[in-house]
Amino acid sequence: MVAAYAIDYDGVHLTRGEMVLMPTALSGLDESLYPNPWEVDFDRKAAGHITFGGGVHRCAGALFARLELVTTLEEWLKRIPEFSLRSDQKPVYSTGMVANIANVSLAWPVKK
C-alpha cells in the first residue's frame, strides 16, 4: 500500500506515495467492527479478515489450510476436550510480513 496523500499521524509524517505496511494480523482487531476481538468466540459471525490475502494475492493453499485446521481441532477436541494455557508460560509470537505464534504451551488433566 502507499499513502494516498500526505498526512501527519501520531507524530509520524507520511508523504503521498510513501510505502505503508500493515501486518495482516491487525486486520481483525478493530473493536468498532468486531466486539471483543481478543476473545475466542466460536459463535461469532464470520469476520472479514485477510489472513490468507485477497484478490489475485489470495493464498493458493487457503482452502487446504482451513481443512487442516478444522480436522486438527475436531480430532484434538475428541481426545482432549478440557485444556488451558499454562499459567507459567506465555505464548511466543513473531511478526513481520506474516505474523505467527511460534509456541503455545497447554495443560490438560491426565487420567491415571
Keywords:
alpha+beta; 112 residues; 16% helix; single chain
Helix content: 10-25%
Give the N-to-C terminal Cα separation: 56 Å
Strand tally: 6
Largest sheet, spatial ordering of strands? 1-2
Give the H and E element order.
Answer: EEHEEEE
Gross morphology is elongated
As an assembly, this protein is single chain
From the alpha carbons, calculate the radius of gyration and give it in angstroms.
19 Å
State mean pLDDT (0 to 100 scale).
87
Total of DSSP H or I helical runs spanning 4+ residues: 1
Low-confidence stretches: none
Largest sheet: 2 strands, antiparallel
Helices, strands, pairings?
Elements: E1 7-9, E2 12-14, H1 62-79, E3 84-85, E4 92-94, E5 100-103, E6 106-107
Structure explained in plain terms:
- The structure is a single chain.
- This protein starts with 6 loop residues before the first strand and ends in a 5-residue tail after the last strand.
- The chain is built from 1 helix and 6 strands.
- The protein has a two-stranded antiparallel sheet with strand order 1-2. The chain has a two-stranded antiparallel ribbon with strand order 3-6. Strands 4-5 form a two-stranded antiparallel ribbon.
- Strand 1 and strand 2 form a beta hairpin.
- It has a domain at 82-112.
- The model has no long low-confidence stretch (mean pLDDT 87).
- It is elongated, with a radius of gyration of 19 Å.
- The chain is α+β, with helices and mostly antiparallel strands and 112 residues long.
- The longest helix has 18 residues, at 62-79.
Q: What's the quick description here?
A:
Strands 1-2 form a two-stranded antiparallel sheet. Strands 3-6 form a two-stranded antiparallel sheet. Helices cover 16% and strands 15% of the residues. With 112 residues, it is of the alpha+beta class.
